[in-house]
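Propose amino acids for all 167 sites.
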C-alpha cells in the first residue's frame, strides 16, 4: 500500500514538474527580447540612423536635441569637450557647415538593460570644404552611449576621434 502511495506521489510530482516546465517554456517563447522592454540591437542601430538624418537637416539644434541636456561630446574635429546643449550646438554649427554625410563601416552594439546601450565602432564622414567645395573623407572611431529618459532614447556620451595612422 505504501509503495502504491509513493508511486502516485512520484507520478504527481513528475506531472507537476513537466507542466511547470511546459508553461515556463511557453512563456519564454512568447516573450521575445524586445517585448520584455529590452531594446534589440537593431533598434539601437536605428538611433545612429536618426542622428545621421539629423545631420542632413543642416540644423545644429535638431542634431543637439538628440543629446541629453547633460551629455558629453568629444567631437571628431575639435579638441574641446562639449558638456551642455549650447556647446554641442556650437560644435555642430561648424561641423554641419562641412555638409557631413556619415556612414558606418563597422559596429558593435551592447544592450546593457532596458534603458541603456552602447554602440561603438568605425564610421566615416564625407565632408565638403565650405570655402573651396573640395571633398574629403574623415575616417573615425566612435562610441555612442544611449539612455532612455522619459521614454526617449538620448545620447548621453558621444566620443568620436579620427583614426590614427597605421594598425
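Proposal:
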Amino acid at each position: 500500500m505504501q509503495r502504491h502511495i509513493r508511486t502516485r506521489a512520484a507520478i504527481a510530482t513528475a506531472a507537476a514538474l513537466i507542466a511547470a516546465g511546459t508553461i515556463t517554456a511557453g512563456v519564454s517563447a512568447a516573450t521575445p527580447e524586445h517585448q520584455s522592454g529590452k531594446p534589440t540591437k537593431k533598434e539601437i542601430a536605428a538611433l545612429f540612423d536618426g542622428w545621421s538624418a539629423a545631420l542632413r537637416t543642416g540644423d545644429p539644434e535638431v542634431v543637439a536635441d538628440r543629446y541629453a541636456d547633460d551629455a558629453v561630446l568629444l567631437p571628431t574635429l575639435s579638441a574641446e569637450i562639449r558638456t551642455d546643449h549650447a556647446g554641442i550646438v556650437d560644435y555642430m554649427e561648424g561641423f554641419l557647415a562641412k555638409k557631413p554625410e556619415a556612414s558606418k563601416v563597422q559596429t558593435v552594439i551592447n544592450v546593457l538593460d532596458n534603458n541603456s546601450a552602447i554602440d561603438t565602432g568605425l564610421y566615416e564622414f564625407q565632408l565638403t570644404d565650405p570655402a573651396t567645395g573640395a571633398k574629403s573623407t574623415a575616417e573615425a572611431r566612435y562610441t555612442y552611449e544611449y539612455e532612455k529618459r522619459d521614454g526617449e532614447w538620448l545620447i548621453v556620451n558621444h566620443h568620436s576621434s579620427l583614426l590614427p595612422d597605421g594598425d
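The longest strand covers residues 135-149. Residues 105 and 121 are 8 Å apart (CA to CA).
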